[in-house]
Amino acid sequence: MIRVKFYCELWIKIYAGNVYLYSVKAILIVFIGGGLGSVFRYAIGTWVGNEFHTWPWASWMVNLIGSFVIGILLGWSSMGEKNQTLWLFGATGFCGGFTTFSALSKECLVMIQNQQWMLAVLYIAGSVIGGLLCVGLGYWLIRNM
């Protein structure tokens, strides 16, 4: 156990500058959360279907669900429950691995290339407005429970 800590501490200090030993724990928490988020992202994509016909349902769903989860975490932390571990795992890790801005961008580009202008605008607006509504809903729910 001591050797693992030593090697982790050494790696962190060499590659990350002034990061201290406790950051190894934070990195592992984000890593585990991100891995789980990515697996859930893949599962929803498989369940809903990754086929891009007209509306990219899987990406849209994960971005809205991720926004809702972030809203819940924000609401919880705003009530004085400042839990660094939960935030690193849930927001930075899980939601970071789960949500996908790059897929949204790619899908919009495909819509534009196919001259589906209105669909692209609706998808962007629906994603941004829907994301804001989901963050707000999650925040409101957790604050009023």
Low-pLDDT residue intervals, each spanning 5 or more residues: 1-7
| Straight-line N-to-C gap | 42 Å
Number of domains in the coordinates? Answer: 1
The coarse overall form would be globular
Count of helix runs: 6
Order of helices and strands: HHHHHH
Total number of β-strand segments?
0
Structural class: mainly alpha
Radius of gyration using CA atoms only: 19 Å
- How much of the sequence lies in strands comes to under 5%
Largest sheet: none
- Give the helix proportion (percent range): over 70%
Question: Overall pLDDT, averaged?
Answer: 83
Structure description:
With 145 residues, the chain is mainly α. It has one domain (2-143). The chain is built from six helices and no strands. It has helices at 2-16, 22-48, 57-78, 84-98, 101-113, 117-143. The radius of gyration is 19 Å and the shape is globular. The chain starts with a helix and ends with a helix.
Give a quick rundown of the structure.
This protein is mainly alpha-helical and 145 residues long. The chain has helices at residues 2-16, 22-48, 57-78, 84-98, 101-113, 117-143.
Keywords:
145 residues, mainly alpha, globular, disordered N terminus
